[in-house]
């Protein structure tokens, strides 16, 4: 299947890789179908299939925040059809401003890799913020 994007032009994707958000993403509830596009590790794009302008920069939170912890409740697991925790994929949306880059640890994107059903989950944990500054990564030394 081909679809257009304002950032990457026309993209050809396997329809079997479309992630479905039955409730949409808050602020974008009319958009239900997304695809993950690789960018530069550990960054990816979560791109709306049905709107060429809508895409979110996402990453695996556990890579940048090793102490990050997420516990889905039974209702969330049932909604996503999760039967095996090995199929749970967690991503957080990154936001770039002129001065910094932040991660939304309070409302991660969670999807079931076995059925590609997804939702943005709100975490009731005051340790996490909607705008958590990304940790400073050490620069690789050049040899």
Descriptive notes:
This protein has one domain (2-133): BH3618-like, CATH 2.30.290. It is 8% helix and 34% strand. It has 2 helices and 11 strands; from the N terminus they run ββββββααβββββ. The strands form 2 sheets. Strands 3, 4, 5, 6, 7, 8, 9, 10 and 11 form a 9-stranded antiparallel beta sheet that branches. The chain is globular and about 40 Å long. The model has no long low-confidence stretch (mean pLDDT 90).
Query: Which architecture per CATH?
Result: Roll
Task: Count structural domains.
Answer: 1
By CATH, the topology is BH3618-like
Low-confidence stretches: none
Number of helices: 2
Described by strand count, sense and barrel closure, the largest sheet is: 9 strands, antiparallel
Overall geometry = globular
List SSEs in N-to-C order. EEEEEEHHEEEEE
Which value, in Å, is the CA radius of gyration?
A: 16 Å
Mean pLDDT: 90
> What structural class do the secondary elements suggest?
mainly beta
| Strand count | 11
Q: What is the share of helical residues?
A: under 10%
Strand content: 25-35%
